[in-house]
Design brief:
Blueprint: E1 7-9, E2 12-14, E3 21-25, E4 32-37, H1 41-59, H2 63-79, H3 81-92, H4 96-114, H5 116-119, E5 124-129, E6 132-140, E7 143-147, H6 157-166, E8 170-174, H7 181-192, E9 200-202, H8 207-215, E10 221-225, H9 228-240, E11 244-248, E12 253-257, H10 263-275, E13 285-291, H11 294-306, H12 327-342, E14 346-349, E15 368-371, H13 378-381, E16 388-394, H14 397-405, E17 409-410, E18 412-416, H15 420-429, E19 434-437, E20 453-454, E21 457-459, H16 465-471, E22 473-481
Parallel strand pairs: 7-8, 7-10, 8-9, 10-11, 12-13, 12-18, 13-16, 15-16, 18-19
Antiparallel strand pairs: 1-2, 3-4, 5-6, 6-22, 11-21, 14-15, 17-20
Helix pairs in contact: 1-8, 2-4, 3-4, 4-6, 10-11
């Protein structure tokens, strides 16, 4: 019998009040893995009441004790490292090495949370006026929630949860209903920590539970990662309801390749950026812009190296790339590839209709390469969220920067060059939140904020790093005089 995933509220695994279920499939085998409850506003209210009830006790727990829980949590994740990685393969479809990389990056976020006792320290001045001292304090702000995506179902929740609770807040997580199994094991480990009841809570589901979180009056702030249209809705709804919000949206990430770049090494990096996790990440490279004489070299090297990528079941250690998340995603991606062809692009490598022996019904889209993509076309400007790389030509470095900056997205951009002048100018003038120099995936480590600009972000404070400390705390100014 297929299991139905439970919610985790007030320290207990409980059935959702809703009887509506969302099936969870292995996208490579089409096996039904579990059913995810589509929780309602009543389910959310139970979690919020639990988190609110636990807040006062948890905020008064010594900060070093809160950080100690994170030490224990890290040990549990390390002990379950391989099991978590395999669950990610089964529910998401990514290759096993990519899953291991996700878990490793998640552990970095726990490491960051361990440092909260240092990062929450504040400043002050004696004798700001005669006999008067002034200091600042950071205090936990209340109940927080996160609405997280399918593409990194173990890592992204840990951008938020560990730091939030280490700062003294209580927390509710609503993961994607497409990938709830890795979140289930995440909360099984949290349950082993013996945290006070209500400090962490899990509510599974789709739009109804997300809407209830955004509208609930007892939630202080919401973190979100997903597409830009949804991020904008999240931002507008949360601000209308008086909440803090960091809504991290989609992207169209560009890579500029100059003629002086080491072409073979550059393409190895570009391949990982374009086709890693089947292109289903916000930092995926969508467009490679070859400057001047670099075009033919880049086209030839990309064609050679893309053909060597092996698409296969994620638990096969020799697979470079697994499936996309679902059949509907496959159909959407294939339609965008056709749109690129209709717009005049040259289809160098076609990933449609790929067949993986033994997994013929899986949601497979192979690595796809389009050349001579026109400026302003759909494939040059819109996010695919799949394993598709568009190759464009710019006559000059300046034109490449113009192409990048005219995008309404501003997540990431990279340059491949051996020229320090162009590298410095790229960092200075390109309007994107994460800049890579000879780096394909410009992914910030957990101790740095995840920079995004323009329509890739709605809010003031980003996820991770020092921004997360600001987001999860209230600053209080103390002015005192003793006579």
């Amino acid at each position: 019998m297929t299991k139905t995933i439970k919610n985790y509220v007030n320290g207990e695994w409980i059935d959702a009040l809703s009887s509506d279920l969302i099936p969870v499939y292995d996208p490579a085998t089409c096996e039904l893995l579990a059913n995810c409850p589509d929780s309602t506003a009543q389910d959310v209210d139970l979690a919020v009441k639990a988190a609110k009830g636990a807040f006062n006790e948890w905020r008064s727990t010594p900060i070093l004790s809160r950080a100690q829980y994170m030490h224990h949590f890290k040990v549990l994740v390390e002990e379950n490292f391989e099991d978590i990685s395999k669950i990610l393969v089964k529910e998401h479809g990514k290759a096993i090495d990519e899953s291991r990389g996700e878990v490793r990056r998640a552990i970095e976020s726990i490491d960051f949370a361990i440092s909260v006792p240092v990062l929450m320290r504040s400043d002050g001045l004696e004798d700001i006026s005669s006999g008067i001292d002034e200091t600042t304090l950071r205090q936990p702000a209340g109940v927080f929630a996160a609405i997280t995506p399918f593409n990194f179902p173990f890592m992204v929740p840990l951008w938020f949860l560990p730091t939030a609770i280490a700062c003294g807040n209580t927390f509710i997580l609503k993961p994607s209903p497409q990938t709830p199994l890795s979140t289930e094991i995440l909360f099984e480990m949290l349950d082993e920590l013996d945290l006070p009841e209500g400090v962490v809570n899990l509510v599974n589901g789709g739009v109804p539970s997300a809407t209830a979180l955004m509208e609930h009056p007892d939630i202080t702030g919401i973190s979100f990662v997903g597409s830009s249209p949804v991020a904008k809705i999240i931002y507008e709804t949360c601000t209308r309801n008086g909440k803090r919000v960091q809504a991290q949206g989609g992207a169209k990430n560009y890579i500029a390749v100059l003629p002086d770049a080491n072409m073979e090494a550059s393409v190895k990096n570009i391949l990982g950026a374009a086709y890693g996790c089947a292109g289903q990440r916000c930092l995926a490279a969508g467009v490679a812009i070859a400057v001047g004489d670099a075009y033919d070299q880049l086209k030839d090297e990309l064609t050679k190296q893309v053909q060597n990528l092996k698409v296969g079941y994620g638990l096969d250690e020799t697979s470079h790339m697994g499936t996309v998340i679902s059949d509907s995603a496959k159909q959407r991606i294939e339609a965008m590839i056709q749109q690129g062809v209709d717009d005049g692009a040259e289809l160098i490598i076609d990933g449609r209709n790929i067949v993986v022996e033994g997994y013929e019904n899986g949601s497979w889209v192979g690595p796809t390469l389009l050349a001579d993509v026109k400026r302003g076309s759909t494939m040059a400007t819109e996010e695919v969220f799949g394993p598709v790389l568009s190759l464009m030509k710019a006559d000059s470095y300046e034109e490449a920067v113009e192409i990048i900056n005219e995008s309404h997205y501003g997540n990431a951009a990279s340059i491949f060059t051996n020229n320090g002048k162009y590298a410095r100018d790229f960092k200075y003038n390109v309007n994107a939140g994460n800049i890579g120099v000879n780096i394909g995936v410009a992914a910030p480590s957990a101790s740095f904020p995840f920079g995004r600009q323009k329509d890739s972000f709605f809010g003031d404070l980003h996820g991770q790093g020092s921004d997360s400390i600001e987001f999860y705390t209230e600053r209080k100014i103390i002015i005192e005089r003793w006579v």
